[in-house]
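Hypothesis: this fold can be encoded by more than one sequence.
Test: take the structure tokens below, design a sequence, compare later.
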């Protein structure tokens, strides 16, 4: 299962890389330092695989999303994939800030929901992220995967597989932080997983191709619309 999904995840990263062709690749690099108040969430999660979700507290759909995050967290933990840090960064816009408590109430205590200061730098912009993006970092804080729609939809297996790869493999090279019995844990979960067929292309379409000359303007317009 890991081989097929791993290939699709690689293609997803390549697609995102094409979209970011005018910028500098962030793969296997630490993100810019960002704060929520005086708190540095990435520093506090150092030594753990870290999953950062960029979600917008503005619809019923998001309630279902965070529920599935809890389900995924519990599933992986029951399989021995522990010491994984999950967090949500809410959108900085005024409406999302107004709905922040609704989002926070719908997620378990194991997944913190961070409220941005509207007067501080936008964390989403610092991470080069958009709504419903998930960023997955290894134990040394290096970016392993940055998944956007449709790959970040938790109904599909890509998010789970990306977390497993970040936990079990060293895609960004060696890291000084280690996990006891990691080989036993990862071999056991790989051998007990039921085979999963890759979904047909119509179920998980490739990200749409964009004209690089217009990408910057399109991205700016999208962010402006959410403020």
């Amino acid at each position: 299962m890991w081989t097929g999904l791993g290939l699709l995840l690689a293609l997803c990263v390549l697609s995102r890389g094409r979209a970011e062709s005018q910028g500098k690749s962030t793969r296997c690099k630490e993100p810019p330092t960002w704060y929520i108040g005086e708190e540095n969430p990435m520093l506090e999660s150092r030594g753990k695989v870290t999953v950062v979700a960029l979600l917008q507290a503005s619809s019923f759909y998001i309630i279902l999303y965070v529920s599935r995050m809890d389900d995924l967290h519990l599933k992986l933990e029951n399989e021995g994939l522990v010491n994984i840090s999950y967090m949500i960064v809410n959108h900085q816009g005024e409406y999302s800030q107004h709905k922040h408590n609704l989002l926070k109430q719908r997620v378990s205590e194991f997944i913190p929901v961070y409220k941005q200061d509207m007067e501080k730098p936008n964390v989403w912009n610092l991470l080069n992220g958009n709504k419903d993006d998930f960023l997955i970092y290894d134990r040394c804080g290096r970016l392993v995967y940055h998944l956007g729609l449709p790959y970040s939809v938790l109904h599909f297996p890509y998010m789970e597989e990306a977390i497993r790869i970040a936990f079990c493999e060293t895609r960004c090279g060696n890291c000084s932080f280690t996990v006891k019995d990691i080989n036993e844990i990862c071999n056991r979960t790989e051998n007990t997983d039921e085979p999963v067929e890759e979904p047909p292309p119509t179920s998980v379409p490739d990200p749409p191709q964009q004209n690089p000359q217009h990408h910057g303007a399109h991205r700016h317009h999208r962010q402006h619309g959410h403020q």
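The mean pLDDT is 78. DSSP finds nine helices and five strands in the chain.
Hypothesis status: open.
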